[in-house]
Design a protein that fits this description.
about 230 residues, alpha/beta, Spore Coat Polysaccharide Biosynthesis Protein SpsA, Chain A, seven-stranded mixed β-sheet
Amino acid sequence: MKYSIVVLFYGKWSLTHNRLYEFLVHIPSKDVEIILVDNGSDDEDAEIIDTGVAFWQKKLAKHTIRYRKIPVNVGFGAGMNSGASMAKGDIVILYSNDVVCSGNFLPELQAEFDKDRNILLGNEVIWYDGGWNSFPSNGSRTIVPYINGYFIACTKQVWDSMDGFDPLYGKYTMEDVDISMQAQQLGYKLVALHSQNLRHLGAQTAAYTPERFEITKQNKQKFYEKWKVELEAK
């Protein structure tokens, strides 16, 4: 298998730098490319980011590293879509830059795809009511299982069949719930890796602010309106 690891970032170059160092130490170079996507970082970060990317591409990295700079912040979903569109690998891995890599997770990942390629794989699947995946349904509540968006992987074929993340949600949240719903509607299974080699720090790229909370509430309503028929059929 060939792997494309897409790392989206917005400023805070040190997070991405740390991930690249961890990949250097733990992830083999054969059949692995890394795609860096700058999601409209502020101008004051531009010099350090450009210098940092050039350093990794020319001086240190053992992997092929490709880089795309988006002029404005288009949100998590659209940013990841942009990176995934560059992927040349059989397997696309969407990797948040606040996920610490402490070992080679690729053999674990490959074992899952060897068993079934028609899956959406995450390090963690939320099967319970996590607060943002519970919706009204025929006088009761429907819980939508979803893959936590900090680490999502699938074949390029599955990714293309889902047409990526829905740009409906803009900033912050609900894209992972939405794409998990989309995957299940298409008959793909949600599978959790539970790798000890991956640890999510959480809220390092986008902090939990009142603005984020309000946008998440709005996005939850957008999700409900989009999937209302399917939710009420459950």
